[in-house]
Design goal:
The structure holds two protein chains of two kinds. By secondary structure, chain A is an all-alpha fold. In chain A, 76% of the residues lie in helices and 0% in strands. In chain B, helix 3 (96-106) crosses helix 4. The relative contact order of chain B is 0.17. The chains are: A mainly alpha, B alpha/beta. Chain B: One of its GO terms (cellular component) is plasma membrane.
Chain lengths: 272, 257
Amino acid sequence: MTAVAVAPAGRPLADTLTMLRRNLLRAVRYPGLTGFTVGIPVVLMLLFVYVFGGALGAGVAPGVTAGAQGRAAYLDYITPAIVLFAVVGAAQSVAITAAMDATSGIMARFKTMAIAPGSVLGGPVLGTVVQGLVAVVAVLGLAVALGLRPAAGAGGWLAVAGLAALVTFALSWLCVAMGLAARSVETASNTPMLLTALPFLGSGFVPVETMPAGVRWFAEHQPFTPVIETTRSLLAGTGLDTSTTVQALAWTVAIGAAGYAWSRSLYRRERR
Amino acid sequence: MTTDLAVDVRGLRKSYGDHSVLDGVDLAVPAGTVTALLGPNGAGKTTTVGILSTLLRPDGGTVRVAGHDVVAQPEAVRAAIGVTGQVSAVDDLLTGTENLRIVASLHHLGRREARERADALLERFDLVAAAGKPVSTWSGGMRRRLDLAMTLVGSPSVVFLDEPTTGLDPRSRRALWGEVRALVAGGTTILLTTQYLEEADRLADAVAVLDGGRVVAQGSPAELKSAHQAGSLDDVFLRLTDPSTLSTAEQSTEEVA
Ligand SMILES: Nc1ncnc2c1ncn2[C@@H]1O[C@H](COP(=O)(O)OP(=O)(O)O)[C@@H](O)[C@H]1O
Ligand SMILES: [Mg+2]
């Protein structure tokens, strides 16, 4: 028998980059999914600004009248929520990727190879962050094209992108776990849909003060609200509220850590 | 050199819940040989391959592959093996070339080496013409060949093939047999499972029959035939395996024959 040079447990960085390359290639080969992650927030933004904006805009800022003025105010108001929507959409797609890999046998192949175990799920997660950023840039580009004139400087824009990347990263780990937990690719595409509802049940589209007590309590305490508010402050170039920013980061880290731990335990589970 | 076993399994046990699948399996595969693992559907062939390739945890017994314990040194085992599972493990969205290059990168070959290795394997498995097309457009036989090519990228010393020829047309099957023979000639050890007794007869140095959670016979095809006074491995198989599972085994052999 030939003596085999015993490799160490893979090379985490090199293996993760290889897996990232695989996932970006897949995204290029299957542009439908990426098109979706960019297309849905874009359509949503057009719908909310041009159909609802004229009326709703009058309710989000004092002294704004319905019509064109309302649309402009509403564009201002919902841009952070649409950014979050783009992030959620991208994260959802990684659940499908994870479920496809688990059911197709390719994940089993990777598990029998001497590679860094974290790279098998880390690659798709990083690929999703790239896709999420593409979608976020598209949404912000559209917002500017529609007339948004945020006061944010270069630092503010970078912070918006950084926060979006961080939230995509955290939500992706949660969605990877949902994909691995699903018995089929169809289930994997449905479970994370719940996340889509969250921006609506927060401060994304209307001020929470206008909601009935129970809903308002939920809206004020759910994780997406501080993320939306932080993005809003960054774009507006007003100072950050420390407590809101800390909440946004704490939620993000907590979701990411929980999602990562859940993904890891599902990955290690025996599965046929 | 009686200790030069590429696969050394003793008293292997594995159950799912209270359903015992492997109940004291002993199996020895000398380095540089081909062993065929036979058994009716549900006998535990895939489970055995899963344990040997570190995908599943054994409940009891000792399992050594390429000299390493699968539980204590899974990384060392993984560095030595190549696995072609029963379920195809290729990336449908990528091309053949991309599939091979990704696997080559995971073996830490340099860019150029990865490229050369991928090209050589495409050539060897007669996949050059379709190499640039997404694998989803390929035939079953081509996908199976790519699957095997991906398994061989890292030049493994021990190769596990779980029903590698199931569903293949006779020509593809023969081509795959040729590959197996070439690998063994080059010093590789192979353990394959198969539903085709003819395949085991032609290809394997040794045959192990798995039934009722144990290996009920192991030896060369000729030894087994003479020990059971049987004209063919078919007869050996029928005599050895539990009659209650025969109907399914017979059915499935006929279906695919
Ligand atoms: N993950 C699992 N959970 C429960 N039962 C399983 C699981 N995997 C396999 N089995 C059962 O174990 C037995 C052996 O399966 P398998 O190893 O696939 O057999 P073979 O490959 O010989 O057809 C079968 O009865 C099968 O239903
Ligand atoms: Mg099987």
